[in-house]
Design the sequence.
């Protein structure tokens, strides 16, 4: 049986590639994002490139935060596992 760490290393486990949650709250938020973008572009059509630059920067920031959260969570999980194995 292959270990979870090996599977993660080999790319067989890819948590970041899982689709977004299909919940009502997620769908509502996505609809709000889309409608707000449409309204902004209707009112400020000349700002399309600036809005795209802004949203691209927000997406990059979200990806960087997700990466940092994953690393912190992984480390926390490892510390918890270590404590469980070493505590009597």
Sequence:
């Amino acid at each position: 049986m292959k270990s979870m760490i090996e599977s993660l290393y080999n790319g067989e486990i890819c948590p970041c590639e899982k689709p977004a949650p299909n919940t009502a709250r997620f769908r509502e938020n996505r609809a709000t994002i889309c409608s707000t973008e449409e309204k902004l572009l209707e009112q400020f059509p000349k700002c399309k490139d600036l809005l795209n630059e802004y949203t691209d920067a927000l997406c990059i920031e979200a990806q960087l935060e997700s990466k940092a959260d994953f690393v912190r969570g992984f480390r926390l999980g490892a510390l918890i596992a270590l404590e469980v194995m070493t505590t009597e």
